[in-house]
Amino acid sequence: xxxxxxxxxxxxxxRDDAPSRGKLTDRxxxxxxxxxxxxxxxxxxxxxxxxxxxxxxISKTPVRQALQMLSREGLLEVGKRRQxxxxxxxxxxREEILEIREALENIAVHRAxxxxxxxxxxxxxxxxxxxxxxxxxxxxxRFVELDEEFHLRIAEGSGLAIVTRILGQLRGxxxxxxxxxxxxxxxxxxxEEHEAIIEAIxxxxxxxxxxxLHLHLRKSSNVERPGTDR
Length: 230
Hints:
Layout: H1 3-9, H2 23-37, H3 49-56, H4 60-73, E1 76-78, E2 84-86, H5 91-115, H6 118-136, H7 140-158, H8 161-179, H9 187-202, H10 206-224
Antiparallel strand pairs: 1-2
Helix pairs in contact: 2-4, 3-4, 5-7, 5-8, 5-10, 6-7, 6-9, 7-8, 9-10
């Protein structure tokens, strides 16, 4: 399959030629997506089109379009009463998402070892420093945001645009899966794992970077799955 054919096969939301959304639809989309990722809409809860429209002071049409987009992304699904609800994830879903994420991040980190500039690597260290500050401030939400940015920065540093786009979409799934977890992993251990990844990238050691990434993702996934021992 050629690069052009691969791009054509991607969902519209992942393509560079995807049409721009209307401002109201985009506003509704960002509002609902953030609410889902922050846990303001619980897994399995219905997302009411009318209530959101009233809250934002807009008509139902852009809200409906935003909900359809989120449904196509997989963050919403059709419930028993045919209404859209926040998607839940079975253990099989979680394992599948982890495997996809690990495969794509493995590709990205291999390429990043050859492609990332010194400035890009230094920025990864800045993100880790900010994560330490988030821990000291007991700001869990900020820590998670920085964790996500860390991984996406590596993908961006690989220069692989399609991999980066798909990982960006998977980020929403991972965030929602975390909402269902009652277990909290040691944040400082996660930082140490990030530092090991940075050191391997800086050394241009793709094998070591991939191994450090694999360990980090598996430790994180063990915590994100309720009932799984570390």
